[in-house]
Amino acid sequence: MNTAVAFQGYLRQDGRKGIRNLVVVAYLVECAHHVSRRIVTLADDLNVHLIGFPGCYPNDYAYRIMSAVCTHANVGAVLLVSLGCESMDRERLLTQILASGRPAELLVIQETGGTRATIDAGLAAVTRLREQAARVKRVSMGLNELIIGTICGGSDGTSGITANPAVGRCFDTLVSAGAACIFEETGELIGCEAVMAERAVTPALGAAIEACVEKAEHYYRVMGFGSFAPGNADGGLTTLEEKSMGAYSKSGSSPISGLIKPGDIPPTSGLYLLDVVPDGEPRFGFPNIADNAEIVELIACGSHLILFTTGRGSVVGSAISPVIKVCANPDTYRRMAGDMDVDAGRILEGRASLDEVGEEIFKNVVAVASGARSLSEALGHQEFILTYKAFEPIGPACLPVHHSR
Amino acid sequence: MNNSPASIVGTHARAILLHPEDNVLVCVTQLQPGDELLIDGREVAVAEIIGVGHKLARRLLRPGDKIIKYGAAVGSMTAAVMPGAHVHLHNMQSDYIPSHTRTQQKPTRSENR
Q1: Is the separation of the CB atoms in A389 and A287 below 8 Å?
Q2: A13, A90, A154, A355: which has the fewest Cβ within 10 Å?
Q3: Cβ <8 Å between B2 and A246
Q4: Which residues, in sequence order, are CB contacts of B93 under 8 Å at separation 6+?
């Protein structure tokens, strides 16, 4: 497989390179959601995305993720929309985005004159920001500058046999080409902690991985439910650890280079595990209320694009980073082909090998990185969820290899 | 299947063995009552509908037996079943956190771990 491919990226002033050049409109509390949505709807442009945080109470995690996604490599400009009385530190956020070299504006609804005035002002701002973002420099970009995240959603008994190991093959190719790859959801890796720890580049990292899965198990036990949906059982999965074994195969066979938390950007190429389960005693509810909450965290870690495997048939995409859908179940593919970029169910019916599907996923990665729209992206899927959480910084054992990307 | 990937170590036409040590097979096309399967050289008649992605017993399984899939334990049996039987929520449970369904969302069984 030819991995010496290059494509045209967008060079940001902070030195990062993106594969999209988006304007994001971010509401900073639910009270500013409607106004922001109207601005995005009226702008009517697939490159203008709506993101936001609904809460009025302060939260360090939410601030960190919001600032990480607003300064993401795929983002060219930002419009912040505040009601005016919420806790999110809008001035600090604006300053941080401007410091990254991205054009940004802030509208405060209470100061702008209410709904209609802010929608009008927002549309004018988006027009200005689009023009400024369009001046970005195009530069050559290689696989060694890409960060790719993977997630599974709507898993069934076929996921762990077809789509997940095929993504694992693609991850092996990407890691050997110098990319950084991230897998996640430690609550869906319960039962895999020992095998996973053996793949860590140092014993101390292995111990940190085992501790983080133990934390996840405790957290879900307190919640009273594992990360296991009724549809998983409909699709033939019986237990959380069975789902875990299937999910784990997305990681491929590379050594695990580090353990990161939401908002941490992988410092080198290699395979990284993202710990998505909050630290400390459980509060604020379930770690991730739905798949898109995990996708936002992968994006906050710099993921340029997301490989999403599904058996039952998820249709979601995401704001900011394109989502490539890999369908595990051949029956689901036949029902929902318009949502699925890759038909991995062929493996189950003997029409393709794991290696062939892995290579097809890799080709999709190159095409989407080069500007082709994934199906969910072309359909306009731009889901985004950000909720309350609490994290401690990662420990010294988590990133044994340090180089700046 | 002529083009079996490496991780699928054996095929039983309509159900596959993922790992030599597994005691369950994974259904590849939906099975109907009366369908005949050849499991490890023995003819087995299927007694129920088993959907794609679902598990069936490779051999006689007893309560407390660990279910091995991908070569790893993925839960324990709560009832005895014959070869070819559907293995799912009605006769198998997690060794970690109980699973829930749309109708049963208050797991009551005691944790065994």
Answers
A1: yes
A2: A13
A3: no
A4: A238, A239, B75, B76, B78, B99, B109
**Helices and strands in chain A, H and E counts:** 14, 14
Separation in Å, CA A349 to CA A313, A329, A363, B4, B8: 18, 10, 22, 9, 12
Sheet containing B15-17: which strands, arranged edge to edge?
Answer: B10-12, B15-17, B24-27, B55-57, B86-87
Q: What are the structural domain ranges in chain A? A: 7-138, 142-378
Q: Is A15 exposed, middle or buried (0-12, 13-18, 19+ CB in 10 A)?
A: exposed
Residue B59, amino acid:
R
ipTM of this complex: 0.85
C-beta of residue A25 within 8 angstroms of C-beta of residue A36: yes
Answer yes or no: is pLDDT of B110 > 80. Answer: no
Q: How many CB atoms lie within 10 A of CB B90?
A: 11
Tokens linked to A156: 């069934």
The structure tokens 């400390």 sit at: A280
Residue among A279, A278, A303 at smallest CA distance from A288: A278
Burial B3-13 (b: 16+ CB within 10 A, else e): eebebbeeebe
Per-residue pLDDT tens digits for A48-98: 999 999 999 999 999 999 999 999 999 999 999 999 999 999 999 999 999
* A-interface mutation test, from B18, B48, B74, most A Cβ less than 10 A away: B74
Q: Which of A248, A260, A46 lies closest to A147, judged by CA? A: A260
| Closest by Cα among A245, A262, A266, A393 to B18 | A245
Q: Which of A152, A190, A210, A186 is nearest to A287 (CA)?
A: A186
pLDDT of residue B3: 34
CATH code, residues B10-93: 2.30.130.110
**CB-based contact B22:B69 (threshold 8 Å):** yes
Name the architecture of domain A7-138: 3-Layer(aba) Sandwich (3.40)
B42 touches chain A (CB under 8 A): no
Helix (H, G, I), strand (E, B) or coil at A190: coil
Distance CA B91, CA B24 (A): 13
pLDDT of residue A296: 98
Q: Which of B28, B92, B107 comes nearest A238 by C-beta?
A: B92
Q: How far is CA B105 from the centre of its chain?
A: 23
Retrieve residue A49's tokens.
Answer: 């995305």
Contacts of B74 in chain A (CB under 8 A): 191, 238-239, 241-242, 245
Contact B65, B27 (CB under 8 A): no
End-to-end CA distance of chain B: 40
Are B82 and B66 contacting, i.e. CB atoms less than 8 angstroms apart?
no
Chain B, residues 14-33, CB within 8 A of chain A, namely 16, 18, 26-28
Cβ <8 Å between A230 and B7: no
Q: Which tens digit of pLDDT belongs to each residue from B18-33?
A: 999 999 999 998 999 9
